[in-house]
Fold:
Amino acid sequence: MMTVWPLLLDMDRDYCKKVLRRLELEAYAGVVSAFRAQGTLTKEKRKLLTEVATVLSISTERHRAEVRRAVNDEKLATVAERLSGSNNSVEWSIEGRRLVPLLPRLVPQTAFTEVANVIADNTFTKNYDLSELAENLCMCLSNSF
Structure:
């Protein structure tokens, strides 16, 4: 019997969907990275990104997140500046801006918050007492000479 190449692996449908999705996301990230390294975001690049995002089922939020990742990548920024000159990130920054701003985070509350606050207050008081003692000691030493 003849062997058919390539051999098919034993993967179920759900796993295959996950593999495909990962490949789509990696491909889109690669295109965004390459365009960012080329320099300024032109109308043609923006149009191509829109078309590729549609074909690869990339959401608007994912697109913006990828653009923000590329804008903040030091290697891509260096390549873009060396090859295209400075001021090539303004359009990219605008493209990656968030539609809804991030909400400020609340101060975390845990079971140990109250204990930590008591310990912090006690430590502050002891350190303050030590600083007064050190000042008095310095004054005594300076007066004796």
Summary: DSSP finds six helices and no strands in the chain. Residues 43 and 59 are 19 Å apart (CA to CA). The mean pLDDT is 88. Helices lie at 13-38, 43-55, 60-71, 74-84, 90-95, 113-144.
